[in-house]
Here is the input.
Amino acid sequence: MLHSFTRNHNDLSTDAGFQFEFFCDCCGNGVKSTFVESATYGQRNKSESFGRVASSIGGLFGGKAGNLGWALERGSDMVASKFSGESPEWRREYEKAFDAAQEEVRPEFKKCPACNAWVCSDCWNEDENLCTTCAPREASYVAQAHSRAMQRNIDEAAETATVWKGNLESQTTICPSCGKPSGKGKFCTNCGASLALNVCPSCGKEVAQGLKFCGYCGSPMEQNNVCPDCGFENEPGMKFCGKCGCKL
Here is the structure.
């Protein structure tokens, strides 16, 4: 198992070559090494090409040439098999490339003497010679502290702020005709009866329909408003007869 000088790295190697990416222990930004072509891969390609040529010659002339072509092609298959299964040659080449990649990328990082983390230049405090986790930059830390204080002030102000002054009570209008909730319109949504307010014949205040007595003066809502002179039945609340003008 290969060990990286940083805590995390990514293997970008392919059959054709080797490349690695090493990540900052603080922010996670990565730095890639230069791609190095695999010598084993180049030798395998040459062996496979030569094997195919020898096999063609063997097919034309037969005999020993054919046997030689089969052997070379068989050998190239074995090389390919070893390569895909990480042969000793490939392993040595891989480890060498990994060590070279670390040496190439290491100057892009600095090791914090306090926490032993390898960090990039963005996470290094030049003034303190420590990583920004162990020694945050003064300007950044002041800005963060200011932001946290502002958030606390906003939260505290929000706790005592009055953001709504409405009435929490909810009233339901009951239709005086059918006795069911009538909605908020001028007519009952169930039976269609009028929901207009009645006027008290004594004090003139508006009173809900269905009430037999005024809630303001206590007078009966249904009064006999017949004219004593002509006998005309006037509407409730009238103070003079609508037919003869006599005072009611």
Summary: The chain has four helices and eleven strands. The chain has a mean pLDDT of 78.
